[in-house]
Structure formats: C-alpha cells, structure tokens
Amino acid sequence: MLMKRLIVCLDIRGGKVTKGARFVGNVEVGDPVELAARYYREGADELVFYDITASAEKRPIDIEAVRRVAREIFIPYTVGGGIGSVEDMRAALLAGADKVSLNSLAVRNPELLAEGAREFGGQCVILGLDSKRRHGDARFPSGCEVVIHGGRTPTGLDVVEWARRAVELGVGEICLNSIDADGVKEGYDLDITRKVSEAVAVPVIASGGAGNVGHVRDAYVLGRADAALIASMAHLDGDSCRKIKAELREMGVPTRK
Hints:
Elements: E1 5-13, E2 16-21, E3 24-30, H1 32-41, E4 46-51, H2 63-70, E5 77-80, H3 86-94, E6 99-102, H4 104-108, H5 111-120, E7 125-133, E8 144-148, E9 153-158, H6 159-169, E10 173-178, H7 190-199, E11 204-207, H8 213-221, E12 227-230, H9 232-235, H10 241-250
Parallel strand pairs: 1-4, 1-12, 4-5, 5-6, 6-7, 7-10, 10-11, 11-12
Antiparallel strand pairs: 1-2, 2-3, 7-8, 8-9
Helix pairs in contact: 6-7
C-alpha cells in the first residue's frame, strides 16, 4: 500500500472557519489563520481552504485570507471557491496556494479545467466533486448525482462519468465529498469512493463523514482512496493529525511521520 495522506479542510464563511452537517447548520469554529497554523504543527499532510459561499454569491475567492494562511504553513495547500477563470487560478497560486480546486464553476464551464491544466499543469488543478445519492435512478449508473452550489443545485451528471470527464480534461486529482455523509461522523461513503477510485487514474481524496480513525482507515482500504479529508475530527473533537496517523500505522496503514 502506498503512503496515505491526511488532509484537514477549512470551510470559510464570513472570514471564519465553519462546520455543519450535510452542508447546513454551520457554526463558527475559529480563525482560519490560527487553525491552519495549529494543524500544520500537529502533523497535517496537507490543508484545504474552501471559500464555501463564493460561487453562490458570484464573487471571487477571499484572496487576502488565502495569502494570510499561506504565510503560516509549509505543506501542500489547496484553495477553492469562486475560482472561475485562469486569472483567478493564477491569483490563488501567486497568493501561496499549491493547487486550486474547481467545483460548481467547472460544471458550468468544463473547459476551464483544461485551460488550467494547460497553463499550470494538471498537478495544480483539483476537481472538487459534491456527490448526492440517487440509488434506483437509472439516470445515474454510479448511484450518485453531482450537485453544485453547496448541494443546492442538481446537475443531472453521474458522479463517475463526471470524474472520468474531468480527468480527460486534465485534472490531476479529485476531492470527492459525499453530502449524505458530510458532518454526521458515521463514516465516508465507501461505495462511491471506491467506484470513482477504480474509474480514474489520478489520486482520489475521500471527503465527508469521518468520525473516528477506523473511518479514515476504511476510506483507504475499502474505498481505495489515496487521501482522506477530515474536518469535524480536527475542529470539534480535537484529534491531532499526528495522533490519527500514529493510530493508522498501528492498524497497518502507512502514513507519513
């Protein structure tokens, strides 16, 4: 088994890190700069910064907040939300991001993924994909539909088909978030995680649902994810990434020390 990554997600709204369940009921949990520095010290392999209302509010990402966080950490750093052009991508990368994540705006303009990959390399472009279960609906062979705008807008796209299309366009990684599992701390959606991981030849990050170390292990082993994203475990439960990774190693999952 290849070395697995543990990533902490900061969902930003109104300048603060927030956490909810299934994309609703968000509560503030802290300052993004302070939390980013803390998670970096505690052993996170990577950090993700999502400006979660930027696309719905039709505004660009909070670039100054991106810059402030970048000054505090020295690990791979992904930013997303409100990135709708190559110029937006360039601004985020110049502000200190290592990768940019495109979600809602990529569905509306898929060519943006290809433009970003050509300009900056596929390793810098991540597809953020929010998945909603639609079991029994023949329109979605994978059993899940792509939804955008924070889960508010269905797209009619099958999750696996969209993931394959994004890879064809040049993305170097996929962050797959299950809306059904998000924030409820009952485990990742392993079925769709495995289907996407098996369908594409780029790394897949499992997101949405981690409540304990066993859930993280299952994302790697049963979901075949290359990385796992956590939020509640870090923000609300106070679990340090160093402790989580040590427990994973005891379970036989190779992680970075």
